[in-house]
User: Fold this.
Amino acid sequence: MGHEYCGIVEDVGSEVKSVRPSQFIIGSFFAPDNTCPNSTFGYPSSCEHREFVGTAQAPVLRVPLADGTLVATPAINSLRKGGSVSYVGVPYGVELDGETLFFPHVHLQGLTRKESLKCLHG
Assistant:
């Protein structure tokens, strides 16, 4: 995905309505507010009000415009049966219930950065 990030929400500001603590989220390095025409037509990285998230590789991150930027997703349960999940690097603090992978036949694969680039670029 590039410079995107994912993680668990620890806390939210009083104006944030779309995510809550303990949710797994995915976010973009461009933080859109999702109110301009570019965002509403499906191009949030071209949002007229976007902010750049320059520290997305940090262990803790404050995300501006969180309602427009963060997408809560259930990490593994968002896949179709037999789907695949790949991750780059060594995640820490991540726990998976084996039944979550076993019964829906989910494939889980860890990749090094070099392997992931090879997959992307052939």
User: Anything to note?
Assistant: The chain has a mean pLDDT of 78. The two ends are 15 Å apart (CA to CA). The first helix runs from residue 37 to 40.
